[in-house]
C-alpha cells in the first residue's frame, strides 16, 4: 500500500517513518520540479509523477503552499486527502477568513485589503495596533508587518503601494491582547470519526514556534469544549480527511481562531513520544481508512524547536525522557533544524528536565526555554 505526499521536507520524512511499521510505503513529490523521491534517503525514483499518482492508494500534503496546477491534477485522481478546498483554505488567508465567517467561528477583527486606499481611516476601525499579513505564502513570521502606532501608517502605505494587492491581498488584523496561544491538533476520517489530541500551549519568538507544552496548563472545561467544538465544526464543514491543526488565541474564556493548517503540524510533534498514536501515524490511518488510534496521553510533554542552530551536545539524548528528532538540513538562520521532545510525570518534573536540557544547549538559541522551565517548576496541579 502506497501514499504519495506532495512536498518532500521533514514532515514527509516523519510521515514515512510512521507509515513504515504499518506496512505502508510513502513517496514524496518535490513540488519545484514534480520529481518523485524517497523522503528519507532523498533518492529520486525512476518513475514519474503520473505513475506515482496511479500507484498511490491515497495522496496527501505536507504543507499547504502547493502549486495550484499540481493540486488540480491530483484532485482529479479522486485520491487527494484532505481535499483541495481544505488545502486552499490553509494556503490563502482570504479563503480562511471566509470559511470562518460562513461557519460563525470567532476570529480576530480584520479587514481584507486589496487597495492601498483602504488604509485611509483604518485606525478608526481596527485601532492603531494592527498586524498586516500576506494572504498567501506567509509563515513563521514572514509576510507580516506590524503597525505599533498610527505614525507607522505612512511607511507601511509606501511598502504596500509596491505590492500587487489585487493578486495577493493583505489581511489587516487588530492586534489581539490575548492571554496565550494554544492549538488543537486532531484527525477526521472519511466516515466522519474525529479524534483530537490534548491541547498544546505554544510559545512563539519572532514569529516562530519555539516551545509547545502539552497538555496545556490551567485548561478549563470551557476552553477544552470550545477548542474541540471549533475543530469539529471546521473539519466537518470541509469534509476533511487527515490530521488538521487549528491555532487559537485564548482571551479570557473565549477562543479566537488565528490560523488553520491542513496537515500535520509543528505544535503536534510532541505526540511522537507522548502518545501511543502520534500525529503522523494518525494521518496515515485517516487517509487510508484505517481506524483512528488512541490519543490517550500518559505524560506531560514539551516540544522544543531547534532553530538556526547545530552547536549543541548530543549528550542530551542521555537525559531521562529526552528524544532528539533531527531533520538533516543545511544550516540557515531561522531554519528549523530539528526538535527535542521531553516527557515527564508532572509539570514540575518537566521543568526540572528542561533546566537539565539547557545545560546541553546554547541559551541564546533557545531564548524562551529557561523562563518556561522555571514557570513549570513552580507549577502545581490543583
TrEMBL record:
Tell me which species this is from.
Glaciecola punicea ACAM 611
Q: What gene does this protein come from? A: purK
For this record, the Gene Ontology CC terms, alphabetical, are: cytosol
Signal sequence, start to end = 1-19
Annotated InterPro entries? ATP-grasp, ATP-grasp_carboxylate-amine, ATP_grasp_subdomain_1, PreATP-grasp_dom_sf, PurK, PurK_C, PurT/PurK_preATP-grasp, Rudment_hybrid_motif
- Name assigned to this protein: N5-carboxyaminoimidazole ribonucleotide synthase
Write one Gene Ontology MF term: metal ion binding
Q: Which residues form the ATP-grasp domain?
A: 97-288
Q: Which family does it belong to?
A: Belongs to the PurK/PurT family.
What does the record give as the reaction this protein catalyses? Answer: 5-amino-1-(5-phospho-beta-D-ribosyl)imidazole + hydrogencarbonate + ATP = 5-carboxyamino-1-(5-phospho-D-ribosyl)imidazole + ADP + phosphate + 2 H(+)
